[in-house]
Amino acid sequence: MNSFWTGWISFIVLGSIFGCAWLLWATRKSQRFHTETEETMGHTFDGIEEYDNPMPKWWLWLFLLTIVFGLVYLALYPGLGSYKGYFGWTSTGQWEDEVAAAKAKYDPIYAELAATPIEELVQNDDALIMGKRLFLNNCAVCHGSAAHGAFGFPNLTDNDWLYGGSPDKIKETITNGRNAAMPAWESIVGVEGVKDLAHYVRSLSGQQNIDANKAEAGAALFQANCVACHGADGKGNHALGAPNLTDGIWLYGGTQQAVEMTLKAGRNGVMPSFKQTLGDERIHLVAAYVYSLSKEEKQ
Ligand code: HEC
Ligand code: HEC
What are phi and psi of 72, to 5 degrees? Predict the structure, then answer.
C-alpha cells in the first residue's frame, strides 16, 4: 500500500472518531439540561407522537465507550502510517516468524531426505507421503490426483516414459520443465499424406482396421520424415521426448481421427519448470514419489 492510501485511511478513521466525539460534545447542552418532558415534537404519524426527549443516558455512554474503544484499539493495532502498534505486532511479522519457525523445524528434515538417493527414498514411507502431498498440491491439476494423466498429460504410473524414467531424468523433467516439439505435417505431406501416415502409425501398435495400401504409402513417408525423432522402428527417443508409437499408449489418442489431428496440427506439450516454485529439496521428494509410482506398477 502506498503512503497516499495509508494517509487517506488514517484520515477517514481518525476523522470519524473525532467527528462522533464532536457531535456528542456539540449536543451536550440539550443532553445535560433537558430532562424528561411531555412535550412532543409536534407531529403525528398514524396517531404516534414523538416526544421531545434526549436520548437515554446509557445510550450516550455507549457512544462514549465506542469512542474510547476505537482509540485504544487504534493504539494497540498497527496500521496508521508506519506506526507498528503498541505491541509492535504486524501480520507480516507474525507470518515471517512462522516461516522462520517452520524453516528451523523442517529444513534439517528436508536436507537429510535430499541427501538420500531416490532409489533408497522409495523405501521410506514418510518421504513418500511428503512427496505425495507435494504432488497433490503442485502436479495433480494436470496429471490427476492418482497421476494417471489425461489427454495431453502423460500417465506417470505406466512406466512408459517420454523423457526417461530414471531418478535423474525424472528430476531433470521436474526441475527444468519440458517443451515437446512435434511439427505440423499437413503442409509438407498433404491431406492424403496425413491419412496414409496415420494408417501406418496405427499399424505399428498392431491395430486391426488398417488400410494396407495407405499404410504402405505412409511407411515411406515415415522413413523420410519421422525417423529422426521417433526412430526407424517408431520406438521413440527420450532425448527429444518423442513418444514410442508401437506400445499402444497414446498421449493424444490412437484412433485414426486423433492421430490425423496430431499429424495435421502438430503437438507441443509443455511441462512447466518447478525450479523456482519447489526448489531442489522438494523436487527430490516429489521425484521419489513419481519414481515409486511406476515401480509399484511393475511389481
Ligand atoms: C500445467 C500442467 C502440468 C503441471 C502442473 C505438471 N505437469 Fe508434468 N507434464 C505436463 C505435460 C503437458 C507433460 C508432457 C510434456 C510433453 O508433452 O512432452 C508433462 C510431463 C511430465 C513428466 C515426464 C513424463 C515422461 O513420460 O517422461 C514428468 C515426470 C512430470 N510431468 C512430472 C510432474 C510433476 C512431478 C509435477 C509437479 C511437481 C508436474 N509434472 C506438474 C504438464 C504438467
Ligand atoms: C522434431 C522431432 C519430431 C519429428 C520429426 C516427428 N515427431 Fe512426432 N512427436 C515428437 C514429439 C516431441 C512428440 C510428443 C509431443 C508432445 O508430447 O506434445 C511427438 C508426438 C507424436 C505423436 C503423438 C503420440 C501420442 O502418444 O499421442 C504421433 C502420432 C507422432 N508424433 C507421429 C509422428 C509422425 C508420423 C511423424 C512424421 C511425419 C513425426 N511424428 C515426426 C517429435 C517429432
Answer: -65, -45
Tell me whether domains 97-179+272-298 and 186-268 share a fold.
yes
Residue position matching grid coordinates 504432488: 135
Q: What number does the ligand 2 atom closest to the CA of 254 have?
A: 27
Distances in Å between the Cα of 189 and the Cα atoms of 19, 119, 180, 240, 272 are 80, 45, 21, 22, 32
Closest Cα to atom 2, ligand 2: which residue? 229
What class is the 186-268 domain? mainly alpha
Domain map (residue ranges) of the chain: 3-76, 97-179+272-298, 186-268
Residue 32: per-residue pLDDT: 52
> How much distance in Å is there from the Cα of 230 to the middle of ligand 1?
20
Mean pLDDT by 10 residues, the chain (299 residues): 76 90 79 65 83 79 91 78 74 90 91 93 93 96 96 95 96 97 95 97 95 96 97 96 96 97 96 95 95 72
**With contact defined as beta carbons under 8 Å apart, do 297 and 155 qualify?**
no
Q: Which helix (H) or strand (E) holds 271?
A: strand 270-271
Q: Return the pLDDT at 50.
A: 82
Quick one: pLDDT at residue 35? 64
- Beta carbon of 167 within 6 Å of any ligand 1 atom: no
**Residues whose beta carbon lies within 6 Å of some atom of ligand 2:** 180-183, 185, 197, 201, 222, 225-226, 228-230, 240-243, 245, 250-252, 259, 262-263, 267-269
Q: 97-179+272-298 adopts what CATH topology?
A: Cytochrome Bc1 Complex; Chain D, domain 2 (1.10.760)
